[in-house]
Write a structure and sequence with these properties.
The chain is an alpha/beta fold. It has a domain of 254 residues: 3-Layer(aba) Sandwich (Rossmann fold). 41% of the residues lie in helices and 16% in strands. Helix 5 packs parallel to helix 7, helix 8 packs antiparallel against helix 9 and helix 10 crosses helix 12. The chain is globular.
Length: 447
């Protein structure tokens, strides 16, 4: 009875799974400033052509370059782990498994896409990448990847997270990247936001605006995004592809798959390969877990909106709280985004994915239980999936039914200990956004 189900390095998948090939409904296209569907060449100033091709591809299996697979071998394959300790503590008949993405050099799932993005940019002759980061997982992953392939990197980190997680910034600098708290004085967008609110705690939307402006105003620089867009979620499907191989080894299959959802990268990564079976008739539930303070999928509006706060990005059809939404300063910084992946949003809209929102205190309670029973201190973002898994496991206990649960442990919490300090000291509280706040944010939208 093994706790870890492992793969060999030669079993690292040789392709990424492109869910766009199998979606049973059309995806609404991104729109340009003129309101017309965006053409691929319009993205060329900020993305390399290989990523643009992946963004619009309808090919089901996209080959992974051998050099990228060699980089993946630095930490992949990652373990699929049976959470025996957690099961025992809950006294549940459910089997609980988690995919441990915290073992990467950056401590999260984010290098799964930062490495290929840096690789493709390097091939195109780009010298520097600019990006935003919320809690710091993505910024540190891109800094790591740029260091591997020999690119410069500039990171705009949401100011509240920059203050809460100083060692994330240290990590980013250690890999050779530059980092600025956002909003910053480095860009005209940042200066404008600071002029309006000198004490702004920032948001992912503002940081995206700064990073895209940086890329658009420097010929040697491209923009790199850690979530939301199709090619980003495509790269993350290596998580679910490995998980399927690991379940095959033990003759099991999950009844429900859960992941936290901010922009949708780790949710898409763990779940999209299972959708290939779901579309073919397999019974499996997929659940997105988000914070009640930023309830995009559960209480947002499905509409076209900007991906950033300044309205510089294309318009994308997604669940959104409005691109001007200023989320509370919860510690799960990676989940404080006003919108979601168009694919994830469309799956929810079409009833093929469930969405659940949970409170901050319940989430940290679940995180501590996981730490005590499984030994891993999870990132606050990852703890949302743990909370969702507990709900499923306790429901199985009440019903007296066996159930196989899979969740994505998207990262460890070693750089989030100030959050645990605050929780243990009783300084944290629940933040639940009101209907009036959402309505006001949506009404302020330029769309």
């Amino acid at each position: 009875m093994n706790k870890k189900i492992l793969l060999e390095e030669n079993e690292i998948p040789s392709y990424w799974y492109n869910i766009l090939a199998d979606l049973p409904f059309p995806l609404d296209p991104p729109l340009g400033p003129d309101g017309k569907p965006l053409t691929p060449d319009a993205l060329a100033p900020i993305f390399p052509m290989k990523l643009i091709e992946q963004e619009v591809s309808r090919q089901a299996e996209i080959p992974i370059p051998e050099e990228v697979r060699r980089y993946y071998a630095y930490w992949r394959p990652t373990p699929l782990v049976r959470a025996y300790g957690l099961e025992k503590a809950l006294e549940t008949p459910a089997k609980i498994y988690f995919k441990n993405e915290s073992v990467s050099p950056a401590g999260s799932h984010k290098p799964n896409t930062s490495v290929p993005q840096a690789y493709y940019n390097k091939l195109e002759g780009i010298k520097r990448l600019s990006t935003e980061t919320g809690a710091g997982q993505w910024g540190s992953a891109l800094a790591f990847a740029c260091g591997l392939v020999g690119l410069e990197c500039t990171v705009y980190m949401v100011k509240v997270s920059f203050q809460q997680k100083p060692y994330r910034a240290s990590m980013i600098r250690a890999w050779g990247a530059s980092i600025f708290p956002s909003p910053s004085e480095q860009t005209s967008v940042g200066r404008e936001f600071l002029k309006k609110d000198p004490d702004s705690s920032g948001s992912l939307g503002i940081a995206i605006s700064e990073a895209t402006e940086d890329a658009a105003t420097h010929e040697d620089t491209h923009y790199s995004l850690g979530s939301v867009l199709n090619h980003v979620l495509l790269h993350q499907t290596i998580i679910g592809l490995e998980a399927k191989k690991q379940f095959e080894k033990i003759g099991e299959y999950p009844d429900v798959v859960l992941a936290p959802c901010g922009g949708g990268s780790n949710l898409g990564g763990i779940s999209f390969p299972f959708y290939r079976d779901k579309f073919a008739g397999k019974r499996i539930r997929i659940v997105a877990v988000e914070p009640k303070s930023c309830p995009t999928l559960t209480r947002g509006e499905f509409k076209y909106d900007f991906g950033d706060s300044a309205g510089m990005t294309p318009l994308i059809k997604m669940f959104t709280l409005g691109h001007n939404y200023a989320p509370p300063s919860i510690h799960a910084g990676g989940l404080r985004y006003h919108g979601d992946s168009p694919i994830v949003s469309s799956l929810v809209k079409n009833g093929l994915m469930e969405a659940l929102s949970v409170n901050q205190l319940e989430t940290f309670e679940a995180a501590l239980l996981f730490a005590k029973t499984e030994g891993i201190i999870p990132a606050p973002e990852s703890a949302h999936a743990i909370r969702g898994a507990l709900i499923e496991a306790l429901r199985a206990k009440e019903e007296g039914k066996e159930k196989t649960i899979l969740f994505n442990l998207s990262g460890h919490g070693h750089f989030d200990m100030s959050a645990y300090d605050d929780y243990l000291a009783g300084k944290l509280s629940n933040y639940e956004v009101t209907d009036e706040q959402i309505k006001r944010s949506l009404s302020l939208s330029k769309i």
